[in-house]
């Protein structure tokens, strides 16, 4: 029984790091666009799914049989919207593909705090991984999508960025926006996944330091600002230690931990970093 539990736990953790949080991100359920437009009165909100032959310009989906289409023929802005549950302090990667029916327009993508299903909450800060069309440089809460530099090609273009969840935020909403009257905008293969590669780089601004590694009895932590909290996890994802610190220096007793590899997660203000250490 212990071996079965071990394997199930390992499987759950593996899926957690690679699982797409978006429902119907490839639009393969067809024109119903199931899973999209959450939190919108009236449901469809000017969006549908179309086959490749109906994608004006590109003439194909990015993959599969269907792609999402946002329409705006003067009846109001349209958006693909979907809320997903997230964990405060974690970093997530958003990836999707897009194309338009014309080279002129651009569009925004935003990640809004949707905690409590409240649409008026503020947008989160985004960090481009694949460079956008410059919109994000003007406002770090908007990732700009455009295909003007692809003229005369309508080929699908990749969009990719990350965001870190602030304290107190437990749900966010993805929005792909079409405010340009008279144009089709398409989207396909949308994913939001947990970034399993997060490291101590986000804590470098605070001169965070942790030693020794390997450790036998204790690990020492220091930073230029108070370390708010520390958590230690086994490689199976089980939390084995947590401490509220609120101090620039701390000595963490790890003598009771079994020998092996652990993940230390530290928080300073809104920044979170993690690293592996070996318990001897």
Compose a concise summary of this entry.
This protein is mainly beta and 280 residues long. The chain has helices at 2-18, 135-138, and strands at residues 47-51, 66-72, 78-85, 91-100, 106-113, 127-130, 143-146, 157-164, 171-178, 183-194, 209-211, 218-234, 239-253, 260-268, 271-279.
Describe the fold and architecture.
- The chain is mainly β and 280 residues long.
- It has helices spanning 2-18, 135-138, and strands spanning 47-51, 66-72, 78-85, 91-100, 106-113, 127-130, 143-146, 157-164, 171-178, 183-194, 209-211, 218-234, 239-253, 260-268, 271-279.
- Strands 1-2-10-4-8-6 form a 6-stranded antiparallel sheet. Strands 11, 12, 13, 14 and 15 form a 5-stranded antiparallel sheet that branches. The protein has a 4-stranded antiparallel sheet with strand order 3-9-5-7, with no helix packed on it.
- It is elongated and about 65 Å long.
Morphology: elongated
Q: What is the average of the pLDDT values? A: 84
Structural class: mainly beta
Distance between the amino and carboxyl termini? 28 Å
Looking at the structure, the CATH topology of the largest domain is Jelly Rolls
User: Rg to the nearest angstrom?
Assistant: 22 Å
β-sheet strand percentage: over 45%
Q: What's the main sheet like?
A: 6 strands, antiparallel
Q: What is the number of beta strands?
A: 15
**Order of helical and strand elements:** HEEEEEEHEEEEEEEEE
Indicate the percent of residues in helices: under 10%
